[in-house]
Amino acid sequence: MKRLIFSLFFLVFNLANAQHQNLFLGNDYSTNFNHLIYSNDANYQTSFKPIIKSDLNFNTDSILDINFSYDYQNWIFKKIFSEHLIIMNGDDYKVSASPIINFSIGKESIEGLGTFVNTRGIIVQGDLGKTISFYTSFAENQAIFPNYIDAFIRKNKIVPGQGYARDFKEIGFDYAMSSGHVTYRANKMFAVQFGHGKHFIGDGYRSLLLSDNTFNYPYLRIQTNFGKVQYTNLYTEFMDINYFRNNDQMGYPKKYMSSHYLSLNATKRFSLSLYEAVVWRMNHAPGNSGFDVNFLNPIVMLRPVEFSVGSSANVLVGVNLKYKLPFSSYLYGQLLLDEFTLEQIKSNNGYWANKFAYQLGYKIFNAFRIDNLTLQSEYNLARPYTYSHFNTQQNYAHYNQPLAHPLGANFSEFLLLMNYKWKKFVLDGKIIFSKYGGDIKGDTLSYGSNVYLSYNDRPTNFGIDMYQGNLTTVNIKIFNISYILNPKTNLKINLGVTLRDFKNDDVELQTQFINFGIKSDLFNHYYDY
């Protein structure tokens, strides 16, 4: 598989007949529709994201128009505040294009570093007739970040979820990201999507199966719907940027993932989904393409295939659950099994290979009968060495970040989230308490948090406890108040405050950060770790 770089694929599409574009993954953007998607009266498949618009029985643009837009008579005002910048219509096509921006300035503490983000980009999207849709976007960025994000970037060489970081004016970074996909939908049952982007599996804020935490990757998504069942095949190519191969196959090492996701709406209230994934590294022998066709089978169980071909790939399985409750609310949860031995679990002896993670959460819309007030609580935990592998090139990670939770493994986390919309104003708050066992300075052993270390370098086989290593606590409080300028691109004026306390055996770091700016809030940027 070659790295995909998308620009413009088509210049026409039929929005009225098709609408096969994806819903944006951005959490703030999706709050406009989540109460409808998760309604007790609805029967949508909700856990594999991004959701394809044509899987919904309502028009998302119409919802935005009703909730936020005004009937501006002036053409300039209409383009700035309620429409896409460019709209091209025809008998069987329509195309839209809009700029995406983020011009923000900030201050870290009273006498701290001045920060900024300067993002310029574009989104073009549309449908061709009734079967083909496309989306493409590009953003160029320069930024200076607050202390803890700056430290992460310098250590890992990437801006979280947004690509390789290059130096900019000594203390800043320059980075760019392009995304895109083409969707072919022959009928209501089958959809095939080929693109360069991200995915999220789950019904919560975090995912322990697959999240949009990392940088984009090339993928092929095949989605099949029949009755109450949705079955999704996802084939991807990941990259390890820790070292550069300087031989006849120059470039960063590649690895691949083949995954199956079976989701069943068993009743109107209860949904059950099963996940399996196998990650294997590219065979770097001359003439080897790297992608093992044995893992292309769309329905076979992957673990038997792994054994049959003599592979030592990294295989993970998981479950996602959701149960709708009264008062427009639902419970949700996940369980991921990387590797475990039932006998060792029963003995409760801290066996190192009992690698698993789980999530429990609750979300309510229109809480306390207040329209557009959404509250959420969530707990996540991952045992040491979960997602890691003896061969670090087969870990469950991409572009120097974990594919699931930003903290990797050997952690627990509790979140309280709030979102409230009133007319065009948005209030958003997060309170996050987390702790994990990090690496010990000067020690080459893996204590189970860093998925880029081999689990063969563990200190012992038994007595592996949660938070072993350098016990680290992180408490984060984030509050934002925004005013929506254009709902089509979620363009908003935003004032935000971040308070972060970080403590371990080596350092105590406090961050008081305030920022103000105007931005297109369509994508998730996970700076809350």
Report on the structure:
It contains 7 helices and 26 strands. The chain has about 525 residues and is mainly beta. Strand 22 and strand 23 (about 425-440) form a beta hairpin. The longest helix is centred in the N-terminal third of the chain and has 10 residues, at about 145-155. The protein is globular. The two termini are about 30 Å apart.
Secondary-structure blueprint of this entry?
Blueprint: H1 27-30, H2 34-37, E1 48-49, H3 60-68, H4 75-81, E2 86-89, E3 93-108, E4 114-128, E5 132-144, H5 147-156, E6 158-159, E7 163-164, E8 166-168, E9 172-184, E10 190-197, E11 200-201, E12 217-226, E13 229-239, E14 254-265, E15 270-281, H6 302-308, E16 314-325, E17 329-339, H7 342-347, E18 355-364, E19 373-382, E20 397-398, E21 401-402, E22 411-422, E23 425-438, E24 470-486, E25 491-503, E26 508-520
Antiparallel strand pairs: 1-11, 2-3, 3-4, 3-26, 4-5, 5-9, 6-7, 8-9, 9-10, 10-12, 12-13, 13-14, 14-15, 15-16, 16-17, 17-18, 18-19, 19-22, 20-21, 22-23, 23-24, 24-25, 25-26
